[in-house]
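Aim 2 progress update. The chain analyzed this quarter is reproduced below.
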Amino acid sequence: MPKFTLIARQSDALPLAESMIEENEPYGDELGDYKRQAKTLVRQLSKAASPESMMTIDCGYFVYHYVLVEGVIYLTFTEKAYPRRLAFDFLDEISKEFRTVYGSQVERATRPYEFIRFDSFLQKTKKLYENTRTQRNVTKLQQELKDVQHIMTKNIHQVLERGEKLENISFLSSRLVSESKRYVKKTAYMHKLLTYRQYGSVLVVLLIVLVLFWLFN
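Predicted structure tokens:
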């Protein structure tokens, strides 16, 4: 079943809403770390030039599934054994509801978790997808409504490594700009120093001549 869900704006990775981790969750201690990792993944997606619109990210016993719809990332976290079709049906259901309720407000959002009230819908919908053996979910699995075979799957290390490379490129670019500014300042200083050396002695001689002229006249 979906363990937790995160909704964020793609342009700047601003978290808009998320589901709370239940107190009786057997993986409760670990899920805090996975939720932090989910936010890192969202930041990488916000930096990517053209991210996949749908993807499964494998991290061992668990997986992340996400869809990108109209500038909003909907990401959920499940056990690897949980059917992918149900995971993406869950994301499809919450994305439609979120767009209906908050779609026009996304661009104007300024605070993290501005739509945290959406958690009530997330929790209600999550319960519908908990048991894969309910008639509702069995019917979903039997229907050929969504082909999930074509959805790309990547390893968590691949995605994070790509993110690290992007961060390194950003760091190197910032450093290059900083070094260029230092070079310009240093060049200007050296030019002034050269000018002083070139004309300084002439000015000193002229100053001495003027002083002598003033003393003896």
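The longest strand covers residues 62-69. The helical segments are 28-47, 84-102, 119-130, 135-142, 156-215. These observations will guide the mutagenesis experiments scheduled for the next reporting period.
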